[in-house]
Amino acid sequence: MSSVGIAQGLPGRRRFPAFRRLATLLGVAIVGIALLVAIFAPYLTPHDPFAQDLNLRLIPPVWMEGSQPTHLLGTDQIGRDYLSRLIYGTRISMLIGVLTVVTSGLIGITLGIVGGFYGGRTDDFVMFLITCRLSIPLILVALTVVALVGSSLAVVILTLGLLLWDRFAVVARTTTMQVRNLDYIAAAQAAGASRMHILVREVLPNIANHLVVVATLEMALAILLEAALSFLGLGVPPPLPSWGLMIAEAKEYMFFSPWVIMTPGIVLFVLVLGINLLGDGLRDMLGADLER
Amino acid sequence: MTYAIEVRNVYREFKPPGGIVRSGRPVRAVDGVTFSLPAGDVLGVVGESGCGKSTLARLIMGLLPPTSGEILVDGRSLTGMDRRERARLIQPVFQDPFSSLNPRHRIRDIVGLPLASQGDIPKARQVDRVMEMLARVGISSEMAERMPGQLSGGQRQRVAIARALVLHPRIVVCDEPTSALDVSVQAQILNLLTELRRELGLTYLFISHNLAVVEHIATEVAVMYLGRIVEQAPAQDLFRTPAHPYTKALLSSVLTPDPALGIPDVGLGDAYPDPTNVPPGCRFHPRCPSAFAECAATMPDNIRKDGRLVECLLATTS
After folding, report:
1. Which of A178, A219, A249, B114 gives the lowest tally of CB atoms within 10 Å of its CB?
2. Chain B residue closest in CA terms to A181
3. What angle do CA B99, B215, B180 make, to 5 degrees?
4. Could you say which of 3.60.40.10, 3.40.50.300, 3.50.50.60, 3.10.180.10 is the CATH number of the domain covering B3-317?
């Protein structure tokens, strides 16, 4: 790719093929729309997502026979408007994605930077924690937690947030090790800067681009895991409109009304795809920035 | 009399990374160095790569603790000194201005860091001092808003000098401050450093492998080999009458302007020094052109004579 850039007389800036830029734009658009939908959910929903109407059960979406114009994507098995539930589901998915990444990022980045910067015993301890974390099966922990304290949105977010920090820690650790021996760190030490300043203001901004990419990957993973946990009944409790829960509730009707399982599945797929495309695009852009 | 820098019998070892089972031999980067530097002087430290120059610089700046020995800066011990107090006494200028300035900070924040770290200087006063110092090293006020990536190598090194001097330290440790720069810029930076020393009454520890640069700026020169100072003398004496065979070899390795003469043969052979495996006796004897039998067995003493120090058996016998 860089050879293409040189051939086109654009030294310094890596030009990636047009379709990759298109993919990035698509990712930005999907994530942007999902964010807006999540924030403005109450203003966008045509119906109350919790309102049941047993007379209007399993109405198909508008492009199918027997649909009703008031329910664009039809209704579920107890007559709740599917579009409204999907819109509120975006809110839950984005909430889980963002809050999980914030929690796990805080834990993982702190451990990684401290271990990578100080090395020695501290680093051994951090590596031990990472190894321990990697040996814990997530579903098993989720099962235990739900059995002990019951399921709720907060429990899902905390469980995922406290378990998904390993990749943050690994990436923060290795990138910190690359940065810590550079002269500007020594200069800051000689300038009398505090340890906190050196870690937060000198090291962190120089590894942030790698961490942003990890954050997007972890966000997609958290959203998928929430759907999986909800599908297994270990995640968000009903009647909250989580996409995973919608798929779980719809699975008994999928042979006669396949759209009830397909629509949340497609939406989940599109959002995760969008986040991953955004992550790839960020990696390319920030990679080019680092080459400069 | 208090010296600006006093180094007393300092050792520094590095343990190679190893597991529980296997651990390599430690590297002795600095192997018993003693010297003292009067205030206002410029001590040039020369030697080939890997001889411990940069480790010595880091020890003196307090960035590394010595394995043993004592370092006094302005009469006070570095160990246990508060980081803010140390920053007011001694500041560094590094070799590569592309890695010594944080690429994510603006120039004025980089230069202001030593002031901000003091914690008791009002913000407005900090800004004034940063701008004053930038102007002194020839960086315009509009460049203060830029990022390091937007500056040339010479400008970056000026910024690094401004950062080192903004707290008005007494001592500046320059670790090869010109070797990463273009030849035309090197002279500007050297002249700037010389002017600043005169104006501000600074003491420099000037580390370089470039003998011409050291001859230009230093008042006193120390030659390092495998972690020890093997010769130390006032600059003129050292360059005019080198006493140690290694110093002689270093001086004869300087390239002549005539390319037809080729690379001079300094008679050192190709037995490169290995700091994990220091030879017995005189550490220089495997490469020394004038070595004799006793050199392999007896470690030479420091011979001090007429204000110069030589560590060689030849100096003892004569």
Report:
1. A178
2. B99
3. 20
4. 3.40.50.300
Task: Select from B83, B92, B149 the Cβ nearest to the Cβ of A186.
Answer: B92
Helices (H), A150-258: 153-163, 166-179, 183-190, 195-197, 204-231, 243-250
Domain spans of chain A, in order of start = 17-286
Query: A17-286 belongs to which homologous superfamily?
Result: MetI-like (1.10.3720.10)
ipTM, two decimals: 0.84
What is the CA angle B250-B256-B257, rounded to 5?
A: 150
What is d(CA A21, CA A2) in angstroms, rounded to the nearest whole number? 15
Helical (H) or strand (E) element with B161:
helix B153-165
**Which residue in chain B is spatially nearest to A189 when comparing CA positions?**
B63
Q: Which residues of A touch B84 (CB under 8 A)?
A: 192
- State whether A183 and B62 contact (CB < 8 Å): no
List the B171-175 sheet strands across, edge first.
B90-93, B171-175, B203-207, B42-46, B220-225, B228-234, B308-310, B303-305
Does the beta-carbon distance from B87 to A192 stay under 8 Å?
yes
Residue B170: CB atoms within 10 Å: 18
Summarize pLDDT for A159-217 with one digit per residue, the tens: 889 988 999 999 999 999 989 888 999 999 898 888 899 999 889 988 888 898 889 88
Q: How far apart are CA B291 and CA A13, in angstroms?
A: 57
B65 touches chain A (CB under 8 A): no
Write the residue in B87, B95, B101 that is nearest to A190 by C-beta: B87
A-contacting residues in B 133-192 (Cβ below 8 Å):
149, 160, 163, 167
**Cα nearest neighbour of A184 on chain B:** B100
Q: Which residues of A touch B (CB under 8 A)?
A: 182-184, 186-194, 197, 201-202, 205-206, 292
| Three-point CA angle A85, A89, A91, nearest 5° | 125
Residue showing tokens 């049941």: A52
Q: Output the pTM of the full model.
A: 0.80
Distance CA A77, CA A89 (A): 17
DSSP-derived 3-state class of residue A228: helix
Per the CB < 8 Å rule, is A192 touching B83? yes
Question: A187 and B61: CB-CB below 8 Å?
Answer: no
